[in-house]
Amino acid sequence: QVQLVASGGGLVQAGQSLTLSCKASVLAYSNFAMAWFRQAPGKEQEYVGAISPSGGYTDTADSVKGRFAISKDDAKSTMYLQMNSLKPEDTAVYYCAVDRQGATRYSGTYSRSSSYDFWGQGTQVTVST
Questions:
Q1: 3-state SS record for the chain
Q2: Which residues of the chain have a pLDDT value below 50?
């Protein structure tokens, strides 16, 4: 049974940091691209960033570039989102997702939500002023 469990969210002040984790229980985890998306109240889902199957390539959205970083530890089957210099506009529910079908490779982009076929339950991040 596939599971993605996101954790690490919480309430922080602007300028502080948080690290989110996405623990995966999926066969051949290291073979799949994974990504973070977020959704703020009343807004559409937004791509945050992704990591290639090997971990050798990461991508982040312009809105978080230079502040957020993605990594993974294959031994722990866990992907991370290190978030620094948080802003109130980063407030959202953060979701991790996995591409088991190789759609990101075929499409040539990591930012399309439809490329990911399994999603975790989300973790709330709230940034206060």
A1: CCEEEEECCEEEECCCCEEEEEEEECCCHHHCEEEEEEECCCCCCEEEEEECCCCCCEEECCCCCCCEEEEEEHHHCEEEEEECCCCHHHCEEEEEEEECCCHHHHHCCCCCHHHCCEECCCEEEEEEC
A2: none
Ramachandran angles phi, psi of 51, nearest 5° = -135, 140
pLDDT of residue 28: 74
- What is the tens place of the pLDDT at every residue in 91-103? 999 999 999 999 9
User: How far are the Cα atoms of 13, 23, 25 from residue 75, in angstroms, in the given order?
Assistant: 32, 11, 12
- Cβ contacts of residue 42 below 8 Å, gap of 6+? none
Cβ partners under 8 Å of residue 108, min gap 6 = none
